[in-house]
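Every protein is a chain of amino acids, and every chain bends into a shape of its own. The fold becomes a row of whole numbers, each drawn from a learned catalogue of backbone shapes. The protein below has been through that process, and both of its lines are reproduced in full.
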Amino acid sequence: MKKNLLARLVVVSLLALAVPGPAGAAIPGTLPDPGTATVNTASPVKVYILSGQSNMVGMGQIAGTEPGTLETITSAGMFPHMVDGVGSWTVRDDVTYKGVITATGQGPLTPGVQGSTFGPEMQFGQVMGDFHGEPVLLLKVSQGNRSLAWDILPPGSERYTVNGITYAGYGDRDDQWSDTDPYTPIATWYAGKQYDDYVTATHDVLDNFGTTFPEYADRGYEIGGFVWWQGHKDSQNTVHASRYELNLVNFIKSFRSEFSVPAAPFVMATIGFGGWGMSGNYLTVANAQLAVSGETDNYPEFVDNVKTVESRDYWRTAAESPRNEGHHYNRNAETYMLVGDALGQAMSSLQFTRAFLTVDRQTGEIKIVNPADGDMDMDLEAYSITSAAGALDPTSWTTIAGNYDLAGDGSVDSDGNWTVLTGTNGELSEEAQLGGNDGLITIGAEVSLGVGAWVRNLTRDLRFTYTDTDGALQELSVRYVGTPIALGDLNFDGTVGGADWAIFLAGNQADLSALSAAEAYQMGDLDGDGDNDIYDFALFREAYELDNPAPGAFAEMLAAYSVPEPTSLMLLALGAAGLGMWRRRRARPGITHIGKIHSATFNRRNS
């Protein structure tokens, strides 16, 4: 009997997940005994290079009866595939671990292979071992207390100056200097040294592959992808945090190039310190990590080969953990297992062509697309689309129920009907009724979920999860298509002009409290704090002048429009007099990144 969708569409461990393999088979929810896995003896060994700082080194605690150790959580029934029939840790004979620089160790993947702690490689290796069904090598090259802006700075990174302070480019032997603090070379370190050490250590293993792994000498290897988890040290410096996105983009390109795999899959997890209460530089770094993910389309060359997974869901408090050590996720084993699981799911999703969701920026249409060059049909018995910013319009939603099921044209489900579960601006969900064979979206098919179902705005926070016919939770990548939306473009025509000003004026000083963040944006709430006021005016003026740079253009446009009331007239006059650089410091819960994006990067096409 089917369970309710809401009970199924939750973030769970691999026990409730299944990842389609290359041949279309699904990994079972309960993993097989790893020691009995069937090994393909013909193809090259898949090598995954895992890198980062101390949390990639691995601080998940294995032993102990405290809350959150691996012993404790497996004793409570979590991750049963980690324990064999006699209560010992399972050993993955088909997944080999090799750590260099730190977390050194070599052998079959099992708790203890690198010592008394572990990192995300433990569950990542479980997922990838079952995905491939052939030998996998996890090559972990990592070191604690390292920043991307200094220690791991990739080659080609140039010096830059902020507030009179010059910061190091690749190869510089001082991290920063100024007129009052001259450049002072550091004899034993330079910008990018840890990057170079990572590359050297990795090449050393791969160049001596047959010697280091004689059991695989005749097979050779191929790089399957890269895994990255880092960001704490960059978060301790505001300038470094502000450069994180640029440095990460350069790192991905450079690291791939070092090993001659320019399009190899690259997955990363956000930092997750404090969970969803994250703020400040931590939030800056997490947003930067999300910004490079391929589905954002910020970097076209990363589409379908770079994916960021969210780790804030996996934060566990000190009371639930072995230690009170926030920068190491309180050494909570569950956190490290769940992050590894998410990274494995992301990596496997990049190994083949799957269905995806498109969101049209101009029409608001949401569409499921199973491309003509896809590798498998998409079967589903339920799905959910969610938006923290309230960017969904249930009145424009074209449901499977009554449209594409037996009661409709039968194109998705020809022998059964569907039932709507949730229809709000934060979630759209439905599921197949009992008695049918569930839904099927074949290769080459597209299913529109409604023009206008997406409320047009700057955020890109839609998430599409579905349950396949095996009962496993899956997730589609989301691609935003069409002309990017600029800050201040309120009629979504690709420019910021007089028509947008008219919309802005209509919403000025209006009560927007009942609207979602996405709906409020359409009424001129540009800084995401729930109103349209002087601070939003300052942002609109800057955005207008960016699109219309002629001297006096904004003043001429203002003169052509009347202001709705004296209070607004006073505020707008003050804004025109020089409040353009003021920024609202608060933003509504759940979308605290919006103010940062609007004020700091309004000149970018954000959506």
